[in-house]
Write a structure and sequence with these properties.
The chain has about 100 residues and is of the alpha/beta class. It is built from 4 helices and 5 strands; from the N terminus they run αβαβαβαββ. The strands form 2 sheets. It has a 3-stranded parallel sheet with strand order 2-1-3. A two-stranded antiparallel ribbon has the order 4-5. The longest helix is centred in the C-terminal third of the chain and has 15 residues.
Length: about 100
């Protein structure tokens, strides 16, 4: 949410809360955190729907929050919009410690 505040003020949680217990937890926590940032628009999207939207309307996304497995798949897919994995930026970032930037 702090990153989105410096960008286009939109966060999308990508999960599979319809079938995964861990995603249900992700969604519950993300909804709680979203309340702390009323100036940031927030929505959630199942990973399969997000995969389609990244191809058909990538401009609809600003900041995507997701678990590593989904993030890895979606970032590789999004790279194909530009033609190569070597041209898509992504970041794996936590509150503490180093961040991993992948151009």
């Amino acid at each position: 949410f702090q990153t989105a505040a410096k960008r286009n003020h939109h966060v999308t949680l990508v999960d599979k809360a319809d079938v995964l217990a861990t995603s249900k937890l992700w969604r519950r926590i993300a909804n709680q955190v979203a309340k702390e940032f009323p100036e940031i628009s927030f929505d959630s999207c199942y990973v399969d729907a997000a995969a389609m939207k990244i191809i058909s309307a990538p401009e609809k996304f600003d900041v995507i929050v997701t678990e590593n497995l989904f993030g890895d798949i979606l970032s590789d897919e999004a790279a194909q919009i530009t033609g190569s994995l070597g041209t898509i930026p992504s970041i794996s970032r936590g509150d503490h410690g180093p961040a991993l930037y992948e151009p």
